[in-house]
Amino acid sequence: MHSTHLLLEEPIRMASILEPSKASFFPAMTKIVGTLGPKSRSIEVISGCLKAGMSVARFDFSWHDPAYHQETLENLKAAVKLTKKLCAVMLDTVGAEMQVVNKSEKAISLEADAIVVLTPDKGQEASSELLPINFDGLSKAVKKGDTIFIGQYLFTGSETTSVWLEVSEVKGDDVVCVIKNSATLAGSLFTLHGSQIRIGLPTLTDKDKEVISTWGVQNKIDFLSLSYTRHAEDVRQVLPILCLLAREFLSKLGDLYQTQIFAKIENIEGLNHFDEILQEADGIILSRGNLGIDLPPEKVFLFQKAALYKCNMAGKPAVVTRVVDSMTDNLRPTRAEATDVANAVLDGSDAILLGAETLRGLYPVETISTVGKICAEAEKVFNQDMYFKKTVKYVGEPMTHLESIASSAVRAAIKVKASVIICFTSSGRAARPTMPVLSVVIPRLKTNQLKWSFSGAFEARQSLIVRGLFPMLADPRHPAESTNASNESVLKVALDHGKAAGVIKSHDRVVVCQKVGDASVVKIIELED
């Protein structure tokens, strides 16, 4: 992977650092994905998360049952109505995740330098000496000296809630390990991750398929996060089209044909075949927790910069995880974490995904607000002009019709220093320029000969993971290619929305991109008082 660093815009005025951050309707152009769970599932807390800047709600099926997540989703719907904030839904699959099963849910204390045995016998009781796991092939996958991490959601190996193990020997189906740090494991399930160990578990499990075909169909999910997307060595010619196979599974279910598939890259296998996966997926989630274990520490930043650059040039959304772990228990991030969030923005991330910080963290709303503020400050010094030029150069010529129109709109907006671009669309797609893009999604009336329905809600919500793109659903009676005055009325609504959001002010210039008949038009308007 090769990456070209996006330099900061110069000069940065030192005085601006001392200026207080200003609140706005859009906390940042970079989006925030929040994982909903025990500490963030009430209507009150979800409403706070939406107001703070969460635009995508993630439901992690690695834990709890569909009924529990359905209750949370109903609360999300109520919060959306209450706050009038649009929010997309992401279903996160379990995938090839190894887990330690603790049926009694009693806390397990592990002491450094002691011995613990990992066994596939799930009938055994979990203890300080024996940990039953859900995978019977671990003994065949590991060797002496291999590293294994275990913990509930977080497993850095340096905290008291996760443990770092080193394989000392293999006895039949059991794996004997030396404990490298003292820790207490609490809860019913703990994730187990083997560093650079190939695991022969399916990426889309039977449980995943059941959840997608029931909970996913029922709730018409916007995004499917495909955990542990990778390229298995023994089926090299099959797994490059992993995302396509998952899409075929979704399309058979009818209502989910529009669901976007985000490949979650979590290990070396996925990283080695990143280009093939990127080509098939609708977007990428960089799971830095697991990858941070698989990669040497000095290589982590390189993979992030290279992967984000590739996603940017391919025009596909990229999401970064594990940025403010300390805010799970603290109200303020560390200096390193604050810098990490900003660097993710400067590297080109579309969204920041918060996991434990919002799922079981003590300060979910404050965490979203803090991350949003850091993103907004980083965006001020992001060299958008260089980014735009690199993107245009990468796309090359001849451009497609849509690429040409989008490029013209962005170039015009940069030249006239427009405060916002307003794009009329029925697909929800738009470019990613310097300024916010108000994507006016025009619903389309369609029928399957049994019933009539409007499309557009899916497209609008799926814009909520793309940096700088802010959707609004228009009146379906005003088609995007209208040639009459209806376009002006929709434009007025969009301008009023922009004014209310604080992104449009008197005397601002606005670039409008829309279809008039068979032609695509880019026009510049200047607002009066």
UniProtKB/TrEMBL annotation:
A Pfam family reported for this protein in Swiss-Prot or TrEMBL: PK
Record has Cell cycle as a keyword: no
Residues in coiled coil: none
EC class: transferase
Keyword Flavoprotein applies: no
Gene Ontology MF terms in the entry: ATP binding; kinase activity; magnesium ion binding; potassium ion binding; pyruvate kinase activity
SUPFAM superfamilies for this protein: Phosphoenolpyruvate/pyruvate domain, PK beta-barrel domain-like, PK C-terminal domain-like
Entry EC number(s): 2.7.1.40
Domain (Pyruvate kinase barrel) ranges: 30-368
UniProt pathway annotation: Carbohydrate degradation; glycolysis; pyruvate from D-glyceraldehyde 3-phosphate: step 5/5
Cited InterPro entries: Pyr_Knase, Pyrv/PenolPyrv_kinase-like_dom, Pyrv_kinase-like_dom_sf, Pyrv_Knase-like_insert_dom_sf, Pyrv_Knase_brl, Pyrv_Knase_C, Pyrv_Knase_C_sf, Pyrv_Knase_insert_dom_sf
UniProt cross-references to PANTHER family, sorted A to Z: PYRUVATE KINASE
Name of this chain's protein: Pyruvate kinase
